[in-house]
């Protein structure tokens, strides 16, 4: 079992969904089956993390030919980067299933299990065709969950996100196929394995276009400013579990993709795109923050907030120094936890008030003090509250920005300030403003506290004791950075 542990982690949720679907399991069995699969998967991932060697490279590798004549292979493994993503995926699924326990639509549960398999497979794939298949697999459940189970203009918004994502997917697929062809032309053997393709020497002009195919797909997924028009409508229409997955996991997969495939295949070419992406990230920091300040819908407000902080993560990635890279990787984890917490809280507000408009809320602290505490904590964690992991991550990126360029550093430092402005403005109106809604607002019950407490504890631990977590990725991160800097001749 342990030899195939990554395969078990990927396909256990899908297998559970298939079994429960074939036997036409009653709703109660379906719920507990989904929750059980998520808990077992989490323990398998924790076993991987416990046995992970921070000083080794790719680990727990499985590599088997799939369609040998075409170069397709089932090639999976885990390193520092995929381990962070893997931990996030599996840590968030049990709380989401607890949140969903009153959900009566069976399709909702099946889609969540399929979605977990899709995102997990994408994170662990080391064959580009396999990565593409999982990348597309995770899109289908999101499309269904928004289009069928969402609210507002759900069908229009579902179609918008799928069309934009397919646009990026098609350009990435073209680049993947051409990379495999280039390997065939060079060696006489078809291969789409990342380790094989990374050894190809590219013509600079060809490399620019191939990298663009990947970057477009990842820029849409993050999304960088200019590629973001799907984001706020989708977050506004999607049901809460789908919003959590989009913000906490799928958006980070855009960053992961740039890190894994951009720096894995096109290190020198990224220097060509770096100024453009740095400018887009800096514009995004400010633009998304302004939109968040003006937004009345809580989901849309935190969608723009996520866009601003994801721009900060992308910026750190392209500054290519150890402070910025450490901060970006740390922020992937801490922002995912805080984002999951705040969107679950917004979902709980909707369950109680049937609205998420700030002007319809108010006086929550007086009616539900425990609820108000958790809501304020997760909101302030998003803004980089000292003592939480987000503060450590943002501080590292800001230091890395100053190391790269003083003006970039100054501009980046405004992120915390702008976030505090719209977060405190929102908290004042929702928690402490006049009670505009006459609906009885109940405080968190024990099930909801149990659901939220692990996220809160992890955010505090990552803030006050980062040394518990950084040794897991620092050695490999340093080695990865040195390889990237060597490939680009030390340019930053």
Descriptive report:
The chain has a domain at 266-492. Helix content is 74%, strand content 3%. The chain contains 20 helices and 2 strands. A hairpin with a 4-residue loop joins strand 1 and strand 2 (72-78). The termini are far apart. 53% of the residues are buried. The mean pLDDT is 90.
Fraction of helical residues? over 70%
The major sheet is characterized as: 2 strands, antiparallel
How would you spell out the order of helices and strands?
HHEEHHHHHHHHHHHHHHHHHH
Structural class: mainly alpha
Number of helices: 20
The count of strands amounts to: 2
Shape: globular
Strand order of the largest sheet: 1-2
Strand content: under 5%
Distance N terminus to C terminus? 44 Å
Rg, Cα atoms, Å: 22 Å
Low-confidence stretches: none
Can you give the mean pLDDT? Answer: 90
């Amino acid at each position: 079992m342990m030899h195939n542990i990554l395969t078990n982690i990927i396909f256990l949720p899908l297998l559970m969904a298939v079994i429960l679907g074939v036997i036409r399991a009653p709703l109660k069995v379906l719920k507990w089956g989904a929750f059980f699969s998520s808990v077992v998967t989490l323990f398998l991932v924790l076993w991987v993390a416990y046995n992970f060697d921070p000083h080794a490279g790719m680990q727990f590798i499985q590599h088997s030919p799939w369609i040998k004549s075409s170069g397709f292979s089932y090639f999976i493994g885990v390193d520092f980067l995929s381990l962070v993503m893997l931990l996030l995926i599996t840590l968030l699924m049990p709380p989401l299933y607890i949140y969903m326990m009153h959900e009566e639509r069976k399709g909702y549960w099946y889609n969540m299990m399929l979605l977990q398999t899709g995102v997990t497979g994408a994170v662990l794939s080391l064959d580009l065709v396999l990565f593409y298949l999982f990348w597309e697999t995770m899109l289908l459940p999101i499309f269904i969950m928004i289009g069928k189970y969402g609210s507002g203009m759900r069908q229009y918004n579902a179609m918008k996100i799928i069309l934009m994502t397919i646009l990026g997917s098609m350009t990435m697929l073209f680049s993947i196929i051409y990379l495999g062809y280039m390997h065939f032309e060079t060696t006489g053997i078809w291969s789409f394995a990342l380790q094989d393709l990374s050894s190809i020497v590219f013509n600079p002009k060809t490399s620019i276009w191939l990298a663009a195919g990947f970057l477009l797909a990842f820029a849409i997924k993050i999304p960088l400013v200019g590629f973001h028009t799907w984001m706020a409508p989708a977050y506004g229409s999607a049901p809460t579990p789908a919003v959590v997955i989009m913000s906490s996991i799928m958006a980070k997969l855009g960053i992961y993709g740039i890190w894994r495939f951009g720096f894995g295949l096109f290190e020198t070419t990224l220097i060509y795109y770096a100024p453009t992406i740095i400018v887009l990230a800096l514009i995004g920091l400010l633009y998304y923050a302004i939109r968040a300040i003006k937004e009345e819908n809580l989901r849309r407000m935190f969608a723009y907030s996520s866009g601003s902080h994801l721009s900060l993560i992308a910026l750190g990635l392209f500054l290519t120094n150890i402070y910025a890279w450490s901060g970006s990787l740390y922020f992937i984890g801490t922002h995912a936890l805080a984002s999951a917490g705040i969107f679950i809280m917004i979902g709980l507000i909707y369950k109680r008030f049937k609205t998420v408009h700030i002007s319809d809320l108010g006086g929550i602290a007086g009616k539900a003090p425990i609820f108000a505490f958790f809501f304020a904590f997760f909101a302030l964690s998003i803004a980089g509250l000292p003592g939480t992991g987000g503060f450590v991550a943002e501080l590292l990126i800001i230091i890395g920005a100053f190391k790269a360029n003083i003006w970039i550093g100054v501009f980046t430092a405004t992120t915390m300030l702008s976030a505090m402005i719209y977060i405190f403005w929102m908290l004042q109106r929702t928690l402490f403003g006049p009670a505009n809604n006459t609906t009885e607002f109940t405080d968190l019950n024990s099930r909801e506290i149990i659901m939220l407490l692990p996220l809160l504890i992890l955010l505090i631990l990552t803030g006050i004791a980062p040394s518990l977590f950084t040794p897991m990725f620092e050695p490999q991160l340093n080695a990865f950075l040195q390889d990237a800097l060597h490939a680009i001749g030390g340019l930053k």
